[in-house]
Amino acid sequence: MIPEILADTKTRMERAVEAAKEDFATVRTGRANTALFQKILVDYYGSPTPLAQLASLNNPEARTIIVTPYDKTALKAIEQAIRDTPNLGVNPTNDGNIVRVTMPELTEERRKEYVKLVRSKGEDHKVHLRGIRRKSKDEIDGLKSEVGEDELVRGEKELDALTRAHVDLIDEALKRKEAELLEV
């Protein structure tokens, strides 16, 4: 029973680490990255639709993203959604067929703000991991009447090691993102 709980916990923690990495990718660095645009919602015929479903995103140069809509009538809505997105600080241009987004250089102050934002997101994801750990520990504790004390202690030690390993993975991703942000 304990191995099943630990396997389920490991799966949930791995998903949490992936979510953290995806969340970090949405924070802007000096280079243009199509991941920044993945969570932008465009008002398309009255319903919020992810930009990736409405257009293809290309990164031809270091600081330029080209958004090619599948439906040309959505061009204005896409341009407006990109302009209104907070923390991007971009002004897209529209030539009638595509939307061109040139990312401005980040100032030192803005880079430090982004580092704080990423650290905050990292802490939120670590809290989520600890929540997963707490739930799994409660499940293991619920087995007291069914398994021996040694198995419970061993299960808790494995759970702690699993949690520590996944927190370390989030810390590594956080360090990489910080280095990327502070790179000029």
From TrEMBL:
InterPro entries tied to this protein: Ribosome_recyc_fac, Ribosome_recyc_fac_dom, RRF_sf
Primary localization: cytoplasm
Swiss-Prot/TrEMBL keywords: Cytoplasm, Protein biosynthesis
Coiled coil: none
GO cellular component, one term: cytoplasm
Keyword NADP: no
Compartments in which it is found: Cytoplasm
Domain of life of the native organism: Bacteria
Gene Ontology MF terms: ribosomal large subunit binding
Domain Ribosome recycling factor: 21-182
One GO-annotated biological process of the protein: translational termination
Family, as annotated: Belongs to the RRF family.
Record function comment: Responsible for the release of ribosomes from messenger RNA at the termination of protein biosynthesis. May increase the efficiency of translation by recycling ribosomes from one round of translation to another.
UniProt name for this protein: Ribosome-recycling factor
Gene behind the chain: frr
